[in-house]
Design goal:
Layout (H helix, E strand, L loop, with lengths): L4 H15 L8 H8 L11 H17 L3 H11 L3 E3 L4 H5 L4 E3 L4 H13 L3 H14 L9 H6 L2 E7 L4 E5 L4 E5 L12 E4 L2 E2 L10 E2 H6 L8 H25 L3 H24 L13 E7 L4 E8 L7 E9 L5 E7 L7 E2 L19 H8 L1
Parallel strand pairs: 3-12, 11-13
Antiparallel strand pairs: 1-2, 3-9, 4-5, 6-7, 6-10, 8-9, 10-11
Amino acid sequence: MRYDFDEAESAFLRAYEVINSTGVNDGGRTLGAVLVDEKIKIWKGEPYERAMANFYLGMIYYVRQDYGNARGAFENALFKLRDYAGDEKAAKKDDYREIESNFAVAAIMLGKCWQKLGREDLSRENFKRAADVRPELSEVADYDRNLKSNLLLIVETGLAPEKVTDFDGSIVGFSPRPNQVPPPPVARVRIDGSVATDPDLCRPTIDTVVMASDRRWQDIDTIRAVKSGIGTGLLAAGAIEGVRGVHERGSAQRRDLTAAAALAAAGLLLKATSQADMRTWEMLPRSVYVIPLHVEPGTHDVAIDFPSMPGMRQEWRNLPVPEAGEATYYMRIRRYDSGPHTWPPPAMRPPTDGPPPDDVAASDRQSVTR
């Protein structure tokens, strides 16, 4: 968000290494997760979180006009998904079929990369792919519109859902669910004070609330459910042994009560260690908007808002738009951060010994002072 893209690139490359590592949870880590706590395992994120990590890496390269590396990152974001077809037995046996990704935002950006690299066939193919999975994005994924674009806005708003536990803490769900919240809003762009877009160009390309509730975008971890089920069974068996021991006498009573205590202890241990791994990527947005525009070259004041959400807006002044090529700007819309901000942002300005500019957020102003 601060446009410190060098640090951001380094972070996403480290995430890429973890996401694509193999064997890191073999042996001791897997056994520890079963017997102790799932947090012992290396956390690679839910599939939609991994897709977003690759998308951000590609976005950084695209902003820098490094379209070759951007293409590779967006392709990595379009990995195949696992479809368990709603079959719980299939999920437990890890039996699934692979299907094509419906991650429309990466398909759109991949189409733009191929367009920049001179491959019209692949560009049209990926734009079509995005429009096929999300027909309402046909304007955003229009080949000719993107070919003429000299100003691309990548806008984010909202927050992804949080992980929650159900029942005894061994089942992971996400909150909110799609039926608990209204759909993401349609954006609006103003250039130098005038509305420059129509609603069909400002629709969200993804909704992480929907993705998180879609089993194709979730990891099926059966160890958690198995541990919980075994723990429940051991507790039940311990109760039965305890009842039997109460009615026994002498050594038989001691034997049954000892067995009951052991079973109950094992059951409680398994129940305690079956708690879900609640790690999550807390800063992910709910929605991402990709808005290709053609405006007069020069500098412009650009404002983004959402008519259905008063107070959600952001304004930037003096955004440069080139004579040739395409300038890309990333904006994260947050309440109480409407601006106006002046380009370039503080992270891209040469260091000075004077006070920080007025448009630096309070938290960033403290860090600049330190």
